[in-house]
Amino acid sequence: MPLIALTGGIASGKSTIAGRLAEHGAVIVDADRIVREVQSPGSPVLADIAAAFGDEVITTDGALDRARLASLVFGDDDAVTRLNAIVHPAVRAESARRFAAALAADPRTVVVYDVPLLVEARVDDPWDLVVLAHAPASLRLTRLVELRGMAEADARARIASQVPDERRLEIADVVVDTAGTLAATLAQTDDLWRRVTATSPDDAVGRHGTGAQPR
């Protein structure tokens, strides 16, 4: 079972790649979705967040007030570290459970972990392949403003809060250039799928144990 980490900065086109791989038959495990689930009302993670940051981060119906929490931690490295110490272990455990379930259902399946914070939290995990969705920060800024309707200052702040592109490029085995057309991105993803599914573990040559061609 190839275990692929798919990462990329905000507005990099990562979701497009994940969607295409799902069409081909990959099992997609979405880190952001897991985060939301482990922070659901009544969960131990949510209780720990409230204990660390105050009951004001909980709405009247018992859910996490994500906007309030974000306002408390954004730009505060210590606060981010405290939050990550609560959330990341739960996400790691749940993602591992889903990887194992996918393997149990079909030992030959390709599992793709869609994970924005790979460099920050999971870079040393034993991935068979690290795939990066990559577009220049200037283009991602344009996408955030023109396609998502974000204020330019907010978009710049979101991009600046993430690790630099250079750090993602350093750990990537395969880079999917998403700066061009949608068709070009999909074609690269199709090629990635062909190489991954045509390669056996015994042919591994990459840093992360894969026979797929490195970037």
Task: Give me a quick take on this structure.
The chain is of the alpha/beta class and 215 residues long.
Commentary on this structure:
Helix content is 53%, strand content 11%. The protein has 215 residues and is an alpha/beta fold. The chain has a domain of 118 residues: Rossmann fold (3-Layer(aba) Sandwich), CATH 3.40.50.300. It has a five-stranded parallel β-sheet, sandwiched between helices. Helix 1 crosses helix 10, helix 3 runs antiparallel to helix 5 and helix 7 crosses helix 8. The C terminus is likely disordered.
Helix content: 40-55%
The Cα radius of gyration reads 18 Å
Q: Would you identify the regions where 5 or more consecutive residues have pLDDT less than 50?
A: 200-215
| CATH fold node name of the domain at 3-26 and 110-203 | Rossmann fold
Please count the beta strands (DSSP E, at least 2 residues each).
5
Mean pLDDT: 90
Alpha-carbon distance between the two ends: 22 Å
Number of helices: 10
Principal-axis shape equals: globular
CATH superfamily caption of the domain at 3-26 and 110-203: P-loop containing nucleotide triphosphate hydrolases
Provide the succession of SSEs.
EHEHHHHEHEHHHEH
Q: What is the CATH class of the domain at 3-26 and 110-203?
A: Alpha Beta
> Biggest sheet: strands, sense, closure?
5 strands, parallel
Q: Hey, roughly how much beta strand do the residues contain?
A: 5-15%
The CATH architecture designation of the domain at 3-26 and 110-203 is 3-Layer(aba) Sandwich
Broad structural category: alpha/beta
Strand order of the largest sheet: 2-3-1-4-5
Protein name: Dephospho-CoA kinase
GO molecular function, one term: dephospho-CoA kinase activity
Enzyme class: transferase
Subcellular location: Cytoplasm
